[in-house]
Write a structure and sequence with these properties.
The complex is a heterodimer of chains A (346) and B (269). Chain A has 346 residues and is of the alpha/beta class. Chain A has 9 helices and 18 strands. In chain A, helix 6 runs parallel beside helix 9. Chain B has a single domain, classed as 3-Layer(aba) Sandwich (Rossmann fold), CATH 3.40.50.620. Chain B has a 9-stranded mixed sheet with strand order 9-8-7-10-6-1-4-5-11, with helices on both faces. Chain B has 269 residues and is of the alpha/beta class. The model of chain B has no long low-confidence stretch (mean pLDDT 92). The radius of gyration of chain B is 23 Å and the shape is globular. The chains are: A alpha/beta (346), B alpha/beta (269). Chain B: This is Electron transfer flavoprotein beta subunit/FixA family protein. Chain B: It comes from Palleniella muris.
């Protein structure tokens, strides 16, 4: 009871990285709270799936293995999570901020009347004081211990908001892939495995959506794992401007990323977006070209090794976290970077 | 048979239209420089509704929004583009709502409209990016949902079957569901048709009806701040720990020097 739960998303029978990252984080939260870490895996043909997750320090793996649970559809997964949570009363539930997590999380929160914070960039445990009215209508301070701090950049500039849900359980949060780090706790960690009778949790009437056709492709790029990332923002000026970035990236064996403004402008595919609502990267070198550096973007790249900013505005916010600031236009600087890299790298 | 369609819409600050005045000197958003607009994904949802109306003449499209009275501007815009009617749900006790309280309120409004076949909304709003309200409404109404929809491929009135193409992580999926249901539509779906001149003339001065919490029979415990499980504990301005940075110009000498340094230190190879 009152444990930390992670909903583990799968592709086929493989648990996704984002789930393993959340298990790593969930283990730490559970340790701070002095409770157990549990997880849910739902799909078809899941023999031995527990071996993929146990080593991250899971105390209890709840497996729901039945025909019709993979590919994911909303109702059966909602039903099994909601019914399990009614029994187990978790205090925290973490999900990936993926298409599935963002489809399932709000459903579960709506059914259980619990708070859900999307796209958190940090999760911590701490106390919370709230002003509430007592029976006599006076304002008094109510103290809540060991709440989940759900931390995320908020709309409106360089602002980070800490959200808490003091009165409702579970405290739910989604986190994007790559935001938390995945770390094996102990290769021989032994937790309990529970294979649930799916029919007890999911009435037959819940299988209402049929997946007729499904195509999943490997990502066309390796932005997350690239040692060098060359990223462009609104200052690139156009789609053609991005061609210059792709040229530089090709020379440096780098991947191309982008800020949200550049993606919204339609200059580059949205799967290259770096930041809170895109990919989080930690490359050796990050070259930000024409990116002003809103908090949402910085949240996705601040742990990069060396940060180089190319910007015609010497006061661009990103410059404060850069190791090298090149003040100049991208049209001027990028061709020179290409030229001198070619000249010197022989 | 004709369809009864509801489109969920939100008026949001236009974070996409970032001009030179979008940020203040302190690095915060200059709200005055960001006009309030129809949330982009909701326009894609409206277009899907209009496509259905084209295919099934006699269908009705009702647009609802929760917000300040001035949110009537987006209802009017929806009428210009082809919606049949719309309501602004506005009331002081509704303020301070998180996604859950918002979804409850909108679900109550949908119940008042009654016997709806298809509820369409944008995948997410650009001022929060949570993508929660659509699924939360579906749960409150006991309906199924198809999120991240790209296109409605077919709809059969007799069997109530609807086939939808949707995005999933790293790919696409085609699903078959039965209506009534909730569909949330991606910004990459078909763009919304423009306003129609005749409709502008017809609706320019039309009164946009308002509903308050009582009109839609809201439980006071489930709306506004009271109905919101999430609380903002703190809002912090982030001051980045300034690194000791080297400032260079775009001159040939500076760029050449940087490349040589990075190569020498094996930072790039």
């Amino acid at each position: 009871m009152n444990n930390v739960f992670v909903y583990c998303e799968i592709e086929g029978t493989t648990v996704k990285d984002v789930a393993l990252e959340l298990l790593t984080k969930g283990r730490k939260l559970a340790n701070t709270l002095g409770v157990q870490l549990e997880c849910i895996i739902a799909g078809s043909g899941l023999d031995g799936v527990e071996n993929q997750v146990m080593k991250y320090g899971v105390d209890k793996v709840h497996i729901f293995d039945a025909e019709g649970l993979f590919p994911y559809t909303t109702n059966p997964h909602t039903s099994l999570v909601v019914n399990l949570f009614k029994e187990e009363q978790p205090q925290i539930c973490l999900l990936g901020a993926t298409v599935i997590g963002r489809d399932l999380g709000p459903r579960v929160s709506s059914a259980l009347f619990s708070g859900l914070t999307a796209d958190c960039t940090e999760l911590e445990i701490g106390d919370f004081d709230m002003k509430v009215k007592n029976e006599d209508g006076e304002l008094v301070t109510k103290h809540y211990e060991q709440q989940l701090y759900q931390i995320r950049p908020a709309f409106g500039g360089n602002i980070v908001a800490t959200i808490v849900n003091p009165e409702h359980r579970p405290q739910m949060a989604t986190v994007r892939e790559g935001v938390m780090k995945k770390e094996v706790l102990d290769e021989n960690y032994k937790g309990e495995v529970i294979r649930h009778d799916v029919a007890k949790y999911v009435p037959e009437t819940e299988y209402v959506v049929k997946v007729l056709d499904r195509h999943v492709e490997e990502a066309k790029h390796n932005l997350k794992g690239a040692p060098i990332v060359v990223a462009g923002g609104y200052g690139m000026g156009s789609k053609e401007g991005f061609d210059l970035l792709f040229q530089l990236a090709k020379e440096l064996h780098a991947e191309v990323g982008a800020s949200r403004a550049a993606v919204d402008a339609g200059w580059v595919d949205n799967d290259r977006q770096i930041g809170q609502t895109g990919v989080t990267v930690r490359p050796k070198v990050y070259i930000a070209c024409g990116i002003s550096g809103q908090i949402q973007h910085i949240a996705g790249m601040q742990d990069s090794g060396i940060i180089i900013s190319v910007n015609c505005d010497p006061d661009a916010p990103i410059n404060t976290i850069a190791d090298y600031v090149i003040t100049g236009t991208v049209e001027e600087v990028l061709p020179k970077l290409i030229k001198y890299y070619k000249q010197n790298n022989k | 048979m004709s369809l009864k369609i509801v489109v969920l819409a939100k008026q949001v600050p236009d974070t996409r239209n970032v001009g030179p005045d979008a940020m203040t000197a302190e690095g915060t958003v200059n709200r005055a420089a960001l006009p309030a607009v129809f949330n982009p994904d909701d326009l894609n949802a409206l277009e899907q509704a209009l496509i259905l109306k084209d295919k099934f003449p006699g269908s009705t499209i009702t647009v609802i929004t929760m917000g300040l009275p001035k949110a009537s501007a987006i209802i009017r815009e929806a009428l210009f583009r082809g919606a049949d009617k719309g309501y602004v749900i506005t009331d002081r006790p509704l303020g301070g709502a998180d996604t859950l309280a918002t979804s409850y309120t909108l679900a109550q409004a949908i119940k008042k409209i009654g016997e709806v076949d298809i509820i369409l909304g944008g995948r997410q709003a650009i001022d929060g990016d949570t993508a929660q309200v659509g699924p939360q409404i579906a749960e409150k109404l006991g309906l199924t949902q198809v999120t991240y929809a790209e296109e409605i491929l077919s709809l059969d009135e007799a069997t109530k079957k609807i086939v939808i193409k949707r995005h999933i992580d790293g790919g696409v999926e085609t699903v078959e569901a039965q209506f009534p249901l909730v569909i949330t539509v991606n910004g990459s779906a078909a763009p919304c048709r423009p306003a129609n001149a005749k409709r502008i003339m017809a609706y320019k001065r039309a009164a946009i009806p308002e509903w308050n919490a009582q009109d839609i029979e809201c439980d006071p415990k489930q709306i506004g701040k009271a109905g919101s499980p999430t609380n903002v504990k703190a809002v912090k301005n982030i001051v980045f720990k300034a690194k000791e940075s080297r400032t260079l110009t775009g001159s040939d000498e500076d760029i050449n020097g940087l490349i040589v340094e990075l190569l020498d230190e094996k930072i790039i190879g």
